[in-house]
Amino acid sequence: MSRRRAPLPRPLPVVALLAFLVLLGACTGGSTSELPEASPSSSAPVERPSATPVPAPEDRACYDLAFADALAATTATPVSECDGEHTSMTFSVGTLDTVVDGHLLAVDSERVMAQVAEACPARLADFVGGTLRERRLSMLRAVWFTPTVDQSDAGADWFRCDVIAVAGQDTLAPLTGRLSGVLSEPGGPERWAMCGTDDPDSPDFERVLCSQPHSWRAIEVVPFEEGRYPGVEAVRDAGQTPCEDAGRSVADDALNFQWGYEGPSKEQWAAGQTYGRCWAPD
After folding, report:
1. What is the pLDDT of residue 100?
2. Structural contact between residues 194 and 21, judged by C-beta atoms closer than 8 angstroms
3. Residue closest to 74 by CA, chosen among 130, 122, 127, 145
4. What gap in Å lies between CA 249 and CA 269, rounded to an integer?
5. What are 162's strand-pairing partners?
6. 21, 277 contact by CB (below 8 A)
7. Would you say 38 and 111 are in contact if contact means Cβ atoms under 8 Å apart?
8. What does the pLDDT look like over 219-273, one tens digit per residue?
9. Where are the domains of the chain?
10. 8 A C-beta contact, residue 210 and residue 167
11. pTM of the predicted model, to two decimals?
12. Percent of the chain beyond pLDDT 70?
């Protein structure tokens, strides 16, 4: 008989730290575009900046970011050669919408930051390709940056979307090879696949690239309808049958096997992760 491994939803170490480890949305057009209009908000009237604005970042530029750098809203990390060591690549550069009803919103305001947090994960799908399932089972993620307040005051109105690969807890993987459309290429989903150091209900569980030492693998996705968080018990129950079936499908013995399920916590749901993952020993 199968051994059930279905813990209650709990905060994920990487996801809890990174607001960008959320649902990779549907494709959008173009690598340089404007954001949707922001909601009205009271602020100071628009004034024309007098200083020279900082130039927008270059699309397809590469950077050697540390994990902490990827968490920041702004960055001063210099450009690296893409054929050298690097951990991020810019895949989209767009224009912030900071003017609402003739008033200027601060670049670090909640509304402006929310615009970018929605735009960049959605645009990643168009860049890396693959199916929604393949993106959810990969370690490729989007991070984003805006100008500093001083740069914004000088007229900078760009935002930058980078792709990174999370190698493990607090670690980014070096990026090698072509990333554009990588999840649509043979071997691409496997190259960036998500594995675990233990079963998902273990205190030693940590997500890692499958090229790293591991003992479990994320094998399937359990989607939920978007809307209100369904609750811990509903999330837990939803994964039982599909994950047991998924575990059986990859097991050597269909009558004696292990499987695991990792459902989204309420915090992860609020951040956009409206799906769970099935796991199996690997």
Report:
1. 81
2. no
3. 145
4. 28
5. 90, 143
6. no
7. yes
8. 999 999 989 999 999 999 999 999 999 999 999 999 999 999 999 999 999 888 9
9. 13-281
10. no
11. 0.79
12. 81
